[in-house]
Amino acid sequence: MPTLTLKFKDNVISEYVLEKEKSLNIGRREDNNIVIDNLAVSGHHAKIDSVGEGFLLTDLQSKNGSFVNEQYISSHWLQQGDIITIGKHNLVFKYRENEAKPEATGPEDMDQTMVMDTDAYKTMLAKSTPNVADLPASKTQAGEPAGILSFISGGTGEIEISKKLFKIGKASTNDIVVSGFMVGQVSTTISKRPSGYFLSHEGGSKPKVNGNSVSESVKLKDFDVIEIGSAKMKFLLK
Q1: Are 52 and 216 in contact (CB under 8 A)?
Q2: Which tens digits make up the pLDDT trace of 35-46?
Q3: C-beta separation of 170 from 190 below 8 A
Q4: I need a surface site. Which of 76, 177, 192, 197 has the fewest CB within 10 A?
Q5: Helix (H, G, I), strand (E, B), or coil: what is residue 178?
Q6: Which long-range contacts (CB under 8 A, 24 or more apart) does 233-236 make?
């Protein structure tokens, strides 16, 4: 399995192993898998998902942005030797010696890395203070259809997936709270990426999409039926 080495300047702080079918969260808060205790880092800054044979880094609308090899990214398929910069810390992505590596591109249904406003964001990164202004409107594409969850059972009405990382589970802090046997505190997340909406299993019993259990990230399609604990919802693009 590939590793992430957390560094501050030339000092190695820690090393983390990425695992198949698991996600890894990066941020300042203690509930992250990789905690970077620095005010330039957002509470929930970025996320790495295991998708197929590769690993996808997604920025979670952080204040100071995420960079790979000094390029501002919205999402990026990690490759051997990539250097992720978050705040003033670096994470070096490497496969172990003789470990099989995926092709340079991700799965066919995923877009390539989005790179925007590189020079401006490198300047922001150099300053890297918690008072940096919100990201400009160019970070999101206007006019895109919004993802909607429409309850079939276990709830009523429709809920727009208005966050970059939308959480569903038993805990009251989730965007949708569901009950049910073995439902995790955070059971499922839906992340909005450049190529669409992706559902990932986080903990507890696995969610289902169109009757099939989900153990990896899957791209949601219009009219997909999602089942999580007591809730059954239809995913719509409007």
Answers
A1: yes
A2: 998 888 989 999
A3: no
A4: 177
A5: coil
A6: 233/149, 233/150, 233/151, 233/152, 233/154, 233/155, 234/149, 234/150, 234/152, 235/147, 235/148, 235/149, 235/150, 235/197, 236/147, 236/148, 236/149, 236/150, 236/158
pLDDT at residue 139 is higher than 70:
no
Query: Of the given ranges (73-87, 133-147, 158-172), which has the lowest mean pLDDT?
Result: 133-147
Euclidean distance between CA atoms 237 and 198, whole angstroms: 13
Q: Give the angle subtended at the CA of 47 by the CAs of 43 and 52, to the nearest 5°.
A: 165
Sheet holding 208-209: strands in order across? Answer: 158-160, 147-153, 231-237, 225-228, 208-209, 212-213
Q: Provide the strand spans (E) within 32-124.
A: 34-35, 46-51, 54-59, 66-68, 71-73, 75-77, 83-86, 89-94
Residue 125 backbone dihedrals phi, psi, to 5 degrees: -60, -40
The distance from CA 111 to its chain's CA centroid, rounded to whole angstroms, is 15
Cα angle vertex 81, ends 120, 19, to 5°?
105
d(CA 20, CA 7): 23
Q: What is the pTM for the complete model shown?
A: 0.48
What pLDDT sits at residue 141? 43
pLDDT at 220 over 50: yes
Give dist(CA 210, CA 221) in Å, integer. Answer: 10
